[in-house]
Amino acid sequence: SEPSKPAVPDEQHAEQQPDHPEAPSAAPEQKPELTPEEQEARRKAREEAMKRQEAEWAAHKEKIERKRQELLEAGRERLRVMKNMGNELFKKDQVELALATYTEGLRDPAPGVEFTSEDREPLLANRALCYFKLNRYVEAEADCSEILITESGRQNAKAWFRRGQVRALMGRLIEAECDLFMATQLLPKDTFVRDEWVAVQKRLRQIVPDLTASTPGIPAPEPAAPTPVTSSAAPATTTTTVTTT
């Protein structure tokens, strides 16, 4: 006899679902509203927390600023030491060593802590003189220009004079004449500076014969006064040699 087959459930009966209504979902629990007193207490707590955060941040910034000032003052002391060392080397005609010393002195004290332009001026001027002595005119001009870009630096006669010298040596006579003229305005009694200015004017007039005093930026030199013939000696004029400081 054939083996009996397993009973197959009635598909229609299997598909039928129990006809039970779904239980209603529970309503979300509602928080009780805060009383005005509780709301005020929360507001004050938030304000107090913000005040504490602001006080902590202000104290942190003050600490950072104190540290920055300490690093800056230490850097300024190192700058003064390196400047004096460079000056001594320059006096001994060790120009390349003086140049390296000035460059090291100009290095900022720490990342994010930079010298001011007034801090850098003396070493930039002295380093420009080293570049000038080594015939590195482009670098000398760059150091002088860094000085002269600031308001205080524009009163630096040494920077005007040195940049005028190197520009003249590079053949940029009009720019050189303007720089040397500015130097004469700051050092009106310095005959050495004035002689450099007059020499550049003469070179300009050889190139451009019709160059006159009315040309913008090219003032003509004042005529030299005749020297009176007397028995007493004339007062000596002031001559200043521009060197390191």
Q: How much of the polypeptide forms β-strand, as a percent range?
A: under 5%
Q: In terms of structural class, how would the helical and strand content be classed?
A: mainly alpha
The whole-number mean of residue pLDDT values reads: 80
Q: Strand tally, please?
A: 0
Share of helix among residues? 55-70%
Q: From N to C, what is the helix and strand string? A: HHHHHHHH
Regions with little confidence, pLDDT below 50 for 5+ residues: 212-240
Radius of gyration: 41 Å
Distance between the termini: 127 Å
Q: Which descriptor suits the 3D outline?
A: elongated
Question: Biggest β-sheet: count, sense, barrel?
Answer: none
Q: Number of helix segments? A: 8
Task: Describe this protein's structure.
The structure is a single chain. The protein is mostly helical and 245 residues long. Helices cover 59% and strands 0% of the residues. It is built from eight helices and no strands. The longest helix is centred in the first third of the chain and has 56 residues, at 36-91. It is elongated and about 105 Å long.
